[in-house]
Amino acid sequence: xxxxxxxxxxxxxxxxxxxxxxxxxxxxxxxxxxxxxxxxxxxxxxxxxxxxxxxxxxxxxxxxxxxxxxxxxxxxxxxxxxxxxxxxxxxxxxxxxxxxxxxxxxxxxxxxxxxxxxxxxxxxxxxxxxxxxxxxxxxxxxxxxxxxxxxxxxxxxxxxxxxxxxxxxxxxxxxxxxxxxxxxxxxxxxxxxxxxxxxxxxxxxxxxxxxxxxxxxxxxxxxxxxxxxxxxxxxxxxxxxxxxxxxxxxxxxxxxxxxxxxxxxxxxxxxxxxxxxxxxxxxxxxxxxxxxxxxxxxxxxxxxxxxxxxxxxxxxxxxxxxxxxxxxxxxxxxxxxxxxxxxxxxxxxxxxxxxxxxxxxxxxxxxxxxxxxxxxxxxxxxxxxxxxxxxxxxxxxxxxxxxxxxxxxxxxxxx
Amino acid sequence: xxxxxxxxxxxxxxxxxxxxxxxxxxxxxxxxxxxxxxxxxxxxxxxxxxxxxxxxxxxxxxxxxxxxxxxxxxxxxxxxxxxxxxxxxxxxxxxxxxxxxxxxxxxxxxxxxxxxxxxxxxxxxxxxxxxxxxxxxxxxxxxxxxxxxxxxxxxxxxxxxxxxxxxxxxxxxxxxxxxxxxxxxxxxxxxxxxxxxxxxxxxxxxxxxxxxxxxxxxxxxxxxxxxxxxxxxxxxxxxxxxxxxxxxxxxxxxxxxxxxxxxxxxxxxxxxxxxxxxxxxxxxxxxxxxxxxxxxxxxxxxxxxxxxxxxxxxxxxxxxxxxxxxxxxxxxxxxxxxxxxxxxxxxxxxxxxxxxxxxxxxxxxxxxxxxxxxxxxxxxxxxxxxxxxxxxxxxxxxxxxxxxxx
Lengths: 415, 406
Hints:
The complex is a heterodimer.
Chain A: E1 6-9, E2 15-20, E3 26-33, H1 47-55, E4 58-59, E5 62-63, H2 64-74, E6 77-82, E7 87-94, H3 98-110, H4 116-132, H5 137-154, H6 162-167, H7 170-180, E8 187-192, H8 196-207, E9 226-231, E10 236-245, H9 253-264, H10 270-278, E11 284-292, E12 295-305, H11 309-321, H12 329-345, H13 350-364, H14 370-378, H15 382-391, E13 398-403
Parallel strand pairs in A: 2-8, 9-13
Antiparallel strand pairs in A: 1-2, 3-7, 3-8, 4-5, 6-7, 10-12, 10-13, 11-12
Helix pairs in contact in A: 1-4, 1-7, 3-8, 9-15, 10-11, 12-14
Chain B: E1 2-7, E2 13-18, E3 24-31, H1 45-52, H2 62-71, E4 75-80, E5 85-92, H3 96-106, H4 113-132, H5 138-147, H6 160-165, H7 168-178, E6 184-190, H8 194-205, E7 225-230, E8 237-245, H9 253-264, H10 270-276, E9 283-290, E10 295-303, H11 308-320, H12 329-346, H13 350-364, H14 370-378, H15 382-391, E11 398-403
Parallel strand pairs in B: 2-6, 7-11
Antiparallel strand pairs in B: 1-2, 3-5, 3-6, 4-5, 8-10, 8-11, 9-10
Helix pairs in contact in B: 3-8, 9-12, 9-15, 10-11, 12-14
């Protein structure tokens, strides 16, 4: 479990992180900017996504086509995304092509061309993506849950809305990039086979002269209880459920995460056993921890044919509440064993390490080591988990269903 | 990296790609059985059985199985396809024996009646889930149209009707025939102790009896057919085309994969630039599917219904302009780089190697390193790809389109 995480802060505020994994042939990096959907003007929902797309349609010395061709030539696997608070670009490649790959990434964020003739195409792509969610009820369910639970500002979807996308102009994109793509608060995290000193020198060359101001703080994120049903002509009803929990930056996060593990990690977890194995109610049921700044939630999903949906919801909620009756030593043992294994296996993937490091820094301002994590998990006891549950019981429920009929759930009401 | 293989007296083959440097190892039983090996009235039994394999054995209850899987800290799962059923887990090397003991015991399930009835509900939920999802059964319909009477026309999940009719006794008979040691391969990848593995598996499977399980291979007789389906809740139009392509044992498959990448993969392909980058289609792709004795070249489109006809015409144009728009050297180079780099990046986890090594051995009886697979792609000439491209225009095709209106 030997591990070394390097940190370096450029004078402009950008943080550079590196974890050497010399046994791999690959490198992977994440470049995270503090620009998300909450930065969009109210009448331009979707602008952060369109801006990110436009940045990739020509930047630095490359045209739109050259960016794609060059990345394909280098054999780079990549993805980009926008969340409530961040815009990110992730790339993985063979170690030998790290430098030219980073050059392209830097150009995308720092020197986009914003070619006028491509805006219509970027807009059409975004509109199609937004429309396609109507054929994906499970995803639509979570989009609606986010809107309901976090409100207008923090509950925005990265897909935007039709009106915002239709009205977005090139000036909007340029302004968004100029105002929000800043080194201050940006994170570049690299994992894999590389030399730290070389990497820092490259980061300084590519980002050292980047300038930009710190962003104003946004208001506090607060969860909003309530429920909503979207009618859909389908065989299955999709259930998305959320309740309050401690957030990723909370001192007791691993207690909360442990409870979610007991609920949903593995085939012996309570939700899988009660909802699927014993009753055959669903094919798919799960729970996961989710944080938006200081606001933590547990998000649950279950999909089941409409006549059995009410029972599925009732059993799911009862199973969540069963945590309050105590945790079995066996359950805790399995949880610890899973964490230990996954921490070892994490060393097999540069991509998962680089994105985890960026996420850690964004939330905690530091990168916990595997040893530290292991220690926190080993310290969990059945008593401490139960005590945590009692201190932070599920509350402030939000429920969204999509399907033929709405469901009854008295606790998910607006307060 | 070292490759080892052995055959036990009962016919069970054990193979491993050993990488002493790896942090973990992956183990899997590859069963040569899938929907193509079923009779029509038992459609879905392979997949249903796969679910039942987690429901306990003579020695273990269903709860024991699930708890042990989690106890080992493993990442474990199973899947069923037209041609195989695979059970696999990834564990730390200290757990090699425990994992093998559990996985081997699972291959001899109790198949209890009451579990059968509960699990049937889960399968019906799975079928309902896929029925609600794009492309709303178009893939299954295209396989039925293309393969006709050929066994590859059968649905992996079966249908609500066939699953409702299945009974535990016929499943037991099917299991006995198809899960015989001579129809199974134990595959391992990563930090494997092969000698220990052999000793353990020999002891654990000594009682297993071989069967006469086989598989009939026939070339399908491809047809031309246009099928329209209506799914009123859909908002987009989804169209899928199946044409003949090389199979998994055909040397020409490398050429076909490169061609599919040039014409229609998700970045930088001809389709990408024409339809996806321009915002005309939500998704447009050309890809291959390979089976033991035959294969497919497939095209897929998802877009707004009003833009469908024009987009589909563009896909046809791209597929059929072998003579007018020949493959360029640059396109070939980019496709090779993309494929080869993707293979190396994907191979860092032993769990990914498990499938490459297992599939190559169970279907082609070959072991191939990443270097030699890369070499296959690297040596393909532009003339060969061009020849394959020009032959596309003459291929038969089954097209299925599903959308909100007929």
